């Protein structure tokens, strides 16, 4: 039997942990711990990670979380932790069969070593060749056994959200949403999540750093960084997309806020509006200063919001969100 009271995150800003470990150079523990502590102090207590956020060792992200909560057991109850799994870390293709889901969850639980419970667990992508009932049923088994607390899915289309929630009540849906990826407002995802009262977790809300204005040339992205594989960051698209960033930077300057704060303010202004239900941005950052900047809420007046929407409508983003190997897994 699915639980009657479903855990649903509800904070203005969450925190994405991917960048700490899914990069050629990991964030040293001292800095990572200070950043994580800062997130909690700032109320960004919804954390998102995955069982493949590590290079070269896929589980490095889980290992960081274990070390943090081992050092700070007093914080374990303060944080709602969402872990995605069920993919091949080399190819990023889904592994959503029952036994694969159970194995992925078991790996996560073992790596976390009891230092932190997985509050919400779920598949990273949908696999149309595996029935949703099989994948989500396996997670239902994990919830029933109290191994994880609830179910979240990612990159789901509107009809998948509707179907999944009928199979097993969803705690959240994690989807890309930002000033350069507003798709969920027009593809039915926001409307469906609002209707079903399911929080959307907005991933890459700063456009993987691009919208902050700090990535000015490809040289600002280290070799081996995953962004170098994505279409929007290819040389033929990069400079064109920078034109949007310049416009946003001018807008942020006018408001006396940073471009990152503007990007997050636009998301918060969309949350709980006519267009959408709850949307929680999860900016990734590796320093306490950036977490403080990103969690310092600045508000947009309706006129600011309209002006920003007009800028977006006048601009065509160049390049897909991922690349030809991964495109078929989006909005599934
Ligand atoms: N479900 C999915 O398929 C999926 C896919 C991608 C991401 N995610 C989740 O979404 C989270 C966030 O996404 P993301 O890391 O891809 O992108 P993001 O949050 O849009 O951007 C993170 C980048 O922006 C930089 N940054 C953060 N705050 C800044 C500031 N105030 N000023 C200047 N630069 C700033 C970060 O730098 P530093 O890190 O160097 O500080 C990092 O390079 C991830 O941690 C992950 O949990 C989920």
From TrEMBL:
Name a GO molecular-function annotation. oxidoreductase activity
**Record domain NADP-dependent oxidoreductase: where:** 14-311
Q: Which domain of life is it from?
A: Eukaryota
Pfam families to which the protein is assigned, alphabetical: Aldo_ket_red (PF00248)
Q: Which Gene3D superfamilies match?
A: NADP-dependent oxidoreductase domain (3.20.20.100)
Write the record's keywords in alphabetical order, separated by commas: Oxidoreductase
CC per GO annotation: cytoplasm
Q: What is this protein called?
A: NADP-dependent oxidoreductase domain-containing protein
Protein source organism:
Pestalotiopsis fici (strain W106-1 / CGMCC3.15140)
Biological classification of the source: Eukaryota, Fungi, Dikarya, Ascomycota, Pezizomycotina
């Amino acid at each position: 039997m699915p639980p009657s009271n479903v855990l649903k995150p509800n904070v203005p800003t969450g925190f994405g942990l991917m960048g700490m470990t899914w990069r050629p150079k990991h964030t040293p523990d001292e800095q990572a711990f200070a950043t994580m502590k800062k997130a909690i102090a700032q109320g960004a207590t919804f954390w998102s990670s995955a069982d493949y956020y590590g290079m070269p060792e896929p589980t490095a992200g889980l290992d960081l979380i274990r070390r943090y909560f081992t050092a700070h057991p007093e914080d374990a109850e303060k944080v709602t932790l969402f872990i995605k799994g069920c993919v091949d870390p080399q190819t990023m293709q889904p592994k959503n069969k029952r036994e694969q889901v159970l194995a992925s969850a078991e790996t996560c639980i073992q790596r976390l070593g009891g230092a932190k419970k997985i509050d919400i667990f779920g598949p990273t992508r949908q696999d149309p060749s595996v029935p949703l009932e099989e994948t989500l049923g396996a997670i239902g088994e994990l919830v029933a056994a109290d191994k994880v607390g609830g179910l979240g899915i990612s990159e789901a289309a509107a009809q998948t959200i509707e179907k999944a929630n009928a199979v097993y009540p969803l705690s959240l849906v994690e989807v890309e949403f930002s000033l350069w990826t507003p798709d969920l407002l027009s593809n039915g995802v926001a409307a469906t999540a609002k209707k079903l009262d399911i929080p959307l977790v907005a991933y890459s809300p700063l456009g993987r750093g691009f919208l902050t204005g700090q990535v000015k040339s490809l040289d600002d992205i280290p070799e081996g960084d995953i962004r170098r594989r994505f279409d929007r960051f290819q040389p033929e698209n990069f400079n064109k997309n920078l034109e949007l960033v310049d416009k946003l930077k001018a807008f942020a300057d006018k408001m006396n806020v940073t471009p990152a704060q503007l990007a997050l303010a636009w998301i918060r202004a969309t949350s709980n509006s006519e267009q959408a239900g709850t949307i929680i941005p999860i900016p990734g950052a590796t320093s306490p200063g950036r977490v403080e900047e990103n969690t310092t809420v600045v508000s947009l007046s309706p006129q600011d919001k309209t002006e920003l929407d007009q800028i977006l409508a006048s601009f065509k983003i160049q390049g897909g969100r991922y690349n030809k190997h991964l495109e078929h897994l989006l909005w599934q």
